[in-house]
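Technical annex, item 7. During the second reporting period the consortium partners agreed on a shared format for inverse folding records so that results from different sites could be compared directly. Each record opens with the tokenized structure and is followed by the designed sequence. A conforming record, contributed by the partner at site C, is shown below for reference.
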């Protein structure tokens, strides 16, 4: 059977892409192939559930433009499909004087990205927003919200199917062979012939991209696990909504934050430790082949040399609940180790180039047979419909 488009990966980006293409050209024959027995099992199903406003990202970058456009599309989608979400607002809090210039820089970016209403607040106002939070300076961002991204992704999938799209679960793509204008996609179960591949493989997007191109790929996915604690029910009152620290400007992650979750409860996290397996959700998960590939990647070695101090700190906090608690006490001094119970974990797919840069922006690369989404870390869930729109425009130029 010949398909117009095969999308590899049933996470939020693959599903949004399928939906956007089907909405514009329902006559195209499209299938999404997902290796798991359910959709959205990996990054999409294990994240902080924050609807990001577009605060942090370099103006004009793909992250900034897609986050802001995706934010509005996501909210409209949730309204139309009756998916619960809440616009809670968030505070970003400097806990040391040295962080104030960075906080001011983030505020300026917010303004450049058009976030009306984002403002510096006094410490008295901070106490009104978050009574238990301490700091030396803060900003308030009214646009930020919360949602359950798994629910959103499943709704994209349902709508995609209603428009005639097909979804095949438990179909792991093993290899692709392109010849004379079309590609044979071989899964563990069957093969599919297609005119175009769209790779939304998340933690395996580099492996899938390598299948569809001859030259050696110049990026590798480095998996960073983010572990969460949960506040015990009786201490949830310590957090009203969302409390973020000032991020380390040299590190691509936002720092351990407090998040009220749409499905209930308050989470603290995620940290960022190197995962020894791409889908390694536990500290004990190791895949020697994947780990040795990471360690041998020249770009990773440079990243390790650059961030070793931050990396060891994150690793230490991963093993020591006392150290994790101490980091949280910077924002909420009343938090005690006994207030925290272990929560889940997610693994971020962070692309790293050969020369040692962790890719800061989203990355979408095309070749004759495929469109590869090679870097779609946070805020890609918020941005999903806009990324889907961007990819669908590239795809539809070919039909
Ligand atoms: C800890 C954490 C916190 C985050 N917090 C936020 C947040 O608050 N807000 C936000 O906007 N973003 C957040 N993100 C980022 C967001 O979750 C991701 O950017 C987004 O989910 C990426 O979606 P995806 O579809 O690209 O990847 P995924 O959801 O990982 O989907 C990729 C899919 O491809 C499948 N696949 C891989 N290889 C194959 C193959 N060979 N054959 C078939 N299928 C295959 C996988 O099984 C998987 O289902 C967070 C991420 C993490 C990990």
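Designed sequence (site C submission):
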């Amino acid at each position: 059977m010949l398909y117009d488009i095969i999308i590899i990966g049933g996470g939020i980006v693959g599903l949004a892409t399928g939906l956007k293409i089907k909405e514009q050209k329902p006559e195209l024959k499209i299938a999404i192939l997902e290796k798991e027995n359910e959709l959205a099992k990996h990054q999409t199903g294990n994240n902080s559930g924050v609807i990001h406003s577009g605060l942090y990202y370099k103006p004009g970058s793909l992250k900034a433009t897609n986050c802001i456009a995706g934010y509005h599309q996501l909210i409209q989608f949730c309204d139309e499909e009756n998916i619960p979400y809440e616009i809670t607002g968030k505070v970003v809090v400097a806990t040391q004087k040295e962080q104030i210039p960075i906080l001011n820089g983030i505020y300026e970016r917010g303004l450049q990205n058009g976030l009306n209403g984002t403002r510096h607040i006094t410490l008295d106002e901070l106490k009104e927003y978050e009574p238990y939070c301490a700091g030396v300076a803060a900003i308030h961002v009214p646009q930020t919200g919360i949602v359950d991204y798994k629910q959103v992704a499943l709704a994209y999938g349902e709508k995609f199917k209603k428009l005639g799209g097909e979804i095949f679960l438990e179909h792991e793509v093993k290899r692709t062979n392109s010849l004379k204008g079309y590609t044979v996609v071989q899964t563990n179960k069957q093969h599919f012939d297609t005119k175009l591949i769209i790779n939304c493989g998340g933690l395996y997007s580099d492996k899938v991209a390598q299948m569809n191109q001859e030259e050696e790929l110049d990026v590798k996915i480095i998996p960073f696990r983010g572990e969460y604690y949960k506040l015990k029910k009786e201490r949830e009152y310590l957090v009203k909504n969302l409390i973020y620290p000032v991020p380390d400007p040299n590190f691509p992650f936002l720092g351990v934050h407090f998040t009220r979750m749409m499905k209930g409860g308050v989470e603290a996290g995620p940290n960022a430790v190197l995962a020894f397996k791409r889908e390694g959700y536990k500290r004990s998960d190791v895949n020697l082949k994947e780990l040795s590939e990471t360690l041998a990647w020249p770009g990773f070695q440079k990243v390790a040399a650059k961030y070793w101090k931050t990396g060891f700190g994150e690793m230490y906090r991963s093993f020591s609940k006392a150290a994790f608690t101490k980091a949280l006490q910077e924002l909420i001094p009343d938090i005690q180790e006994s207030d925290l119970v272990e929560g889940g974990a997610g693994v971020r797919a962070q692309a790293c180039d050969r020369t040692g840069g962790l890719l800061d922006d989203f990355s979408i690369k095309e070749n004759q047979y495929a469109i590869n989404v090679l870097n779609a870390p946070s805020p890609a869930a918020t941005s999903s419909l806009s990324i889907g729109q961007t990819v669908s425009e590239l795809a539809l130029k070919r039909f």
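The mean pLDDT is 95. The two ends are 18 Å apart (CA to CA). All partners now use this format for quarterly exchanges.
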